[in-house]
Design brief:
- The complex is a heterodimer.
- Chain A is α+β, with helices and mostly antiparallel strands.
- Helix content of chain A is about 45%, strand content about 15%.
- In chain A, a hairpin with a 7-residue loop joins strand 2 and strand 3.
- Helices cover about 40% and strands about 10% of the residues of chain B.
- Chain B has 6 helices and 5 strands; from the N terminus they run H-E-H-E-H-H-E-H-E-E-H.
- In chain B, a hairpin with an 8-residue loop joins strand 4 (about 200-205) and strand 5.
- In chain B, helix 1 (about 1-15) crosses helix 2 and helix 4 (about 115-135) packs across helix 5 (about 180-195).
- The longest helix of chain B is centred in the middle third of the chain and has 24 residues, at about 115-135.
- Chain B starts with a helix and ends with a helix.
- The chains are: A alpha+beta, B alpha+beta.
- At the A-B interface, strand 1, helix 2, helix 3 and helix 4 of A face strand 2, helix 3 and helix 4 of B.
- Strand 1 of chain A pairs antiparallel with strand 2 of chain B.
- Chain B: This is Trafficking protein particle complex subunit.
- Chain B: InterPro entries: NO_sig/Golgi_transp_ligand-bd, TRAPP-I_su5, TRAPP_component.
């Protein structure tokens, strides 16, 4: 059977059902607000957002693989490219870029110029330590863990703190080979 | 009354899929009502102050109060940024994932269904408040409005497959829980801030021939709204 060619991010985004980005933005805002009221500590909220992102990422990767038909990535570089070009486009409708590769090819930066999560948002003085988009780092971490890559994702630049773009640093910690739940000889 | 439906219907139609307005006021003074309300909306689009000039509730909730109540930074004044056209989209599944996390998080915070619905409604309320402001600046046009024949203080908006309910399955022990509570909250937020206090709730209505029941948003306007309409009509 001939392998199906991988589809570009734009093509997939055009074919999936879409909703108004404002609804998405406002729902996310409502969620962050709820977290801030419940948890009060900014660090706690950051962790909770990351955890929620992780839960999403774990399920999101299935849909991503099903819709995008990407073949197995040869190395981490390709993985990062696919996340930035296809993944972000497919779910958020924006394209990210990859840069700042280190010498071993295990760390890179994904840069987002445009981020639907932060439309109309401003951080007040009381929440300066908040990583508003921390859910995105959780999503990437969760998705990659489901494809056997343990990663660490941190924010380098955050527009809500005055920088000019959003920059996520993705660091590959190790590749965990898949474990089969059953022994071969049973 | 028509005025508020005008906004609502267009919002729902454009953002949450097709809906059918099943009851509405059928009153010759309605046209005047629309005009009066529409004028008020246009007034707000031409001023920087996001006020809705109408009798009743006058909350000036500007966008700067989006998160907390902090001071505005000089260099990243969110009000100075141009308002986006509103055409940007994200994938439905992205929204569904986000909403499911919202529901799951709230599940851990409460003990019973009523409390869960309440929390979702509150979240929706906040969304509704801001949606109204955005709508006022966009001059959205509704594609069509349906007229009902009854005149009561209760109105219903029904939809076969509500966006938020599409990807949610209700486990048996949760019984009557309805994620439409979030949408009901949005509706309540819009109405409240436009000066039409109402009690809004979401209900499942089983329909012959459809596997999943239709979701209906029930809007019950407060006494003062009806009295006001009677005075103005």
């Amino acid at each position: 059977m001939a392998p199906v060619a991988p589809r570009s991010g734009d093509a997939i985004f055009a074919s999936v059902e879409r909703v108004n980005a404002e609804l998405f933005t406002l729902t996310y805002g409502a969620m962050v607000r709820q977290l801030l009221t419940d948890l009060e500590e900014v660090e706690e909220v950051n962790n909770q957002l990351d955890q929620m992102g992780y839960n999403i990422g774990v399920r999101l990767v299935d849909e991503f693989l099903a819709k995008s038909n990407v073949s197995r990535c040869v190395d981490f570089k390709e993985t990062a490219e696919v996340i930035a070009k296809v993944g972000f486009k497919m779910f958020l409708g924006v394209t990210a870029s990859v840069s700042n590769w280190d010498a071993e090819g295990t760390t890179c930066s994904i840069i987002l110029e445009d981020n639907p999560l932060v439309d109309f948002v401003e951080l007040p003085d009381t929440c300066q330590g908040l990583y508003y988009c921390n859910i995105l780092s959780g999503v990437i971490r969760g998705a990659l863990e489901m494809v056997s890559m343990k990663t660490e994702v941190t924010w380098l630049r955050d527009m809500l703190r005055g920088d000019d773009a959003f920059e996520l640093q993705v660091k590959l910690l190790k590749q965990v080979p898949e474990e089969y739940p059953y022994k071969d000889d049973e | 009354m028509w005025g508020i439906y005008y906004i609502f219907y267009s919002y729902f139609y454009n953002n949450l899929g097709q809906i059918r307005l099943s009851k509405s006021l059928c009153n010759p003074s309605c046209t005047r009502m629309i005009d009066k309300y529409t004028i008020c909306l246009y007034f707000s689009t031409h001023t920087r102050i996001y006020k809705i000039a109408r009798t009743g509730n006058q909350n000036c909730k500007s966008i700067e109060q989006m998160i907390g109540a902090g001071k505005m930074k000089q260099y990243t004044n969110v009000l100075d940024r141009p308002l986006s056209k509103g055409k940007q989209e994200v994938s439905l599944s992205g929204f569904a994932f986000l909403f499911s996390e919202l529901v799951q998080y709230n599940q851990t915070q409460v003990d019973n269904i009523a409390e869960l619905e309440r929390r979702l409604e509150d979240a929706g309320y906040a969304v509704g408040t801001r949606i109204l402001e955005l709508l006022c600046h966009r001059e959205k046009v509704a594609d069509s409005l349906e007229k009902g024949t009854e005149h009561e203080d209760e109105y219903m908006i029904s939809e076969k497959e509500l966006l938020v309910n599409r990807f949610i399955s209700i486990p048996k022990d949760m019984g009557a829980f309805n994620c439409g509570a979030f949408v009901a909250g949005i509706v309540r937020g819009v109405l409240d801030n436009a000066g039409f206090p109402a009690v809004v709730s979401a209900h499942f209505v089983p329909v012959e021939g459809l596997q999943r029941p239709r979701t209906t948003i029930l809007i019950k306007f407060a006494e003062e709204v009806l009295q006001r309409e009677a005075r103005l009509g």
